[in-house]
Write a structure and sequence with these properties.
Layout (H helix, E strand, L loop, with lengths): L9 E4 L6 E2 L1 H14 L7 H5 L6 H11 L6 H17 L6 E2 L3 H10 L3 E5 L4 H10 L8 E3 L11 H11 L5 E4 L2 H10 L3 E3 L26
Parallel strand pairs: 1-4, 1-6, 4-5, 6-7
Antiparallel strand pairs: 2-3
Helix pairs in contact: 1-4, 3-4, 7-8
The structure holds 2-phosphoglycolic acid and magnesium ion (MG).
Organism: Limimaricola variabilis
InterPro entries: HAD-like_hydrolase_sf, HAD-like_sf, HAD-SF_hydro_IA, HAD_2, HAD_sf, PGP-like_dom2
Catalytic activity: 2-phosphoglycolate + H2O = glycolate + phosphate
Length: about 220
């Protein structure tokens, strides 16, 4: 199913919620930023449910929840401050989901080309991957600001596939943004079994219990 022109198999992964539980560091950073600007902190569980549409949208959604009207320039200032705050401690409380590292290693050993397509900014993405020792797994990495338009724009995922040098790949993610992106590109999608409730529309029976299950479709 994921056979490419050259005979290699390829998979592209979402990052937050799919490979890593980054919600604690994201919540800490955005809450530090909000409090520093005289705004309220938000429960980590609430922040977790808003991750997946990029840094700017997270800030905008949190402002909306607090009923604070904000001009685009205010959102931009807060977003920049949040990203800077996150960059100070990118992996303080972030963990790799169980079996993910060993399963990515198994896919690599089997000759698969692996890509990353995330709405996290590129510099932060690279810092997080380095901090967790995950950078060597990936042949191509594209964060939200490394492409003209982020997910669900199909160009984001296409850019990763092109960088991998393959004709097609399977996309693995944890939210409807990922599903919509794969659909727009016309490539197969698999949700992860550990996705938060309500964030995927694909049937639970089709979700990956282990990333290494990609080897046995
Ligand atoms: O929304 C984000 O910042 C990143 O989320 P993603 O890795 O799930 O695309
Ligand atoms: Mg995600």
């Amino acid at each position: 199913m994921t056979q490419t022109g050259g005979g290699a198999c390829a998979a592209v992964f979402d990052l937050d919620g799919t490979l890593i539980d980054s919600a604690p560091d994201i919540a800490d950073a955005v809450n530090r930023t909000f409090v520093a600007h005289g705004l309220d902190a938000t429960d980590e569980a609430v922040v977790t449910g808003l991750i997946g549409n990029g840094a700017r949208q997270l800030v905008a959604d949190l402002l909306t929840r607090q009923c604070i009207p904000a001009a685009p320039s205010d959102i931009a200032i807060l977003t920049e401050a949040y990203v800077a705050s996150y960059a100070e401690r990118p992996v303080a409380r972030t963990t790799i989901y169980p079996h993910v590292a060993e399963d990515l290693a198994e896919l690599k050993r089997a000759g698969w080309r692996l890509g990353l397509c995330t709405n996290k900014p590129q510099a932060l993405t690279l810092a997080v991957l380095e901090g967790l020792g995950m950078a060597p797994f990936f042949d191509a990495v594209r964060g939200a600001d490394a492409v003209p338009a982020r997910k669900p724009d199909p160009g984001h995922l296409r850019a990763v596939i092109e960088a991998l040098g393959v004709d097609r790949a399977i996309y693995v993610g944890d939210t409807e943004v990922d599903e919509a992106t794969a659909l727009a590109v016309g490539m197969p999608f698999r949700g992860v079994a550990w996705a938060a409730p309500g964030r995927l529309s694909v049937a639970e029976s089709t979700r990956l219990a282990r990333l290494s299950d990609l080897l046995n479709p």
